[in-house]
Amino acid sequence: MSKKLFTPGPGNVPQLIRVQLAKDLIHHRMSDYRSILFNVSDKLKKVFKTNSDVLILTSSGTGAMESSIVNLFSKNDEVLVINTGFFGERFIEICSTYELNVHTLNYNWGETYQLQDVKDMFIKFPHIKGVFITHHETSTGILNNIEILGEYLHTTNALLIVDSISGMINHLFDFDGWHIDCALASSQKGFLLPPGLAFVALSEKAKDMLPQSKLPKYYFDYQKYLDYYKKGQNPYTPAISLVLALDVALDTILDKQITTIVNEKKLLRQYVEKRMQEVGFELFIKDESLKGNVVVPVLTNDSYDVDKLVAFLDNRYNISVSKGQGKFLNSMLRIGILSEFTNEDIDDLINHIIEFKAISINDN
Ligand SMILES: *Cc1c(COP(=O)(O)O)cnc(C)c1O
Q: Can you give the pLDDT at residue 363?
């Protein structure tokens, strides 16, 4: 029985991609790689909805987060982090590591941000140079509205940096239309790939900031990626197999169309919500307009021992389900649906949960 990843990243890699991953390597300084890199970049622009360049880094998503900070800012720069969960906290940690002057707006887990709070911060701190936000907060399932934030920030001098690592593809996204300056994504979330690649889109406003940034950087120096891209290359040896597979994955995604993917995921998410409630779990987010489509966070209400349930599913059925993060470590399950699951896959999961419940009752 192959592993089923009901986790919010990575997801299961489709067979079509696995076949591609097993193929011969090509060389990254040769013309065949160049044409693939140009093709992939064009397709990435369609996914991000931008005319700007999208850089490909060999890294997980966190590397991309760190790269945005070291390339766009300098020590003591004033920035604002809109913190709605575990990944918002990560931005605060990285900004603090590089000794930026970090202002934060902290919200309870399960809440979204308020635009008025952001406006108030700009009144208090008019020199804020950048605003960081998580599009889909994977720790809580909240989908933050980027469009209204971009509309406001467009009227300021600040850059808008968006972590859409778990947001991209499974939710609508519009880099140019929403006035985003730097957007981050990574291969193991919506892109049907294993971990290893990260993607960074940069607006002209962001590119203008590159020469001003004085933080140390070497491997993640965006200017090098932009310069090498003109030759159809990456500055250092890229994860060639993943780039080749990305080409195939992007064809699959764009052929299907992102709006279709978003709708299908939404229906699947609603089906998971319905079935999880039937077996006694409580939805963590109630407001439909705030829900993302890649994870269904549920509270256990003391009716389940989360650790035992997770171990039971993994050991007996080879199914991985995520626990909560942070303070919800022992009271939340996060059913990830990044993989291409059907309602029948969900039914199987639910049946195993029912089986677990029956066994635990007999134990007591
Ligand atoms: C997965 C994820 C990340 C990055 O995690 P890595 O393990 O470094 O790939 C960052 N932000 C969000 C919102 C994520 O879901």
A: 65
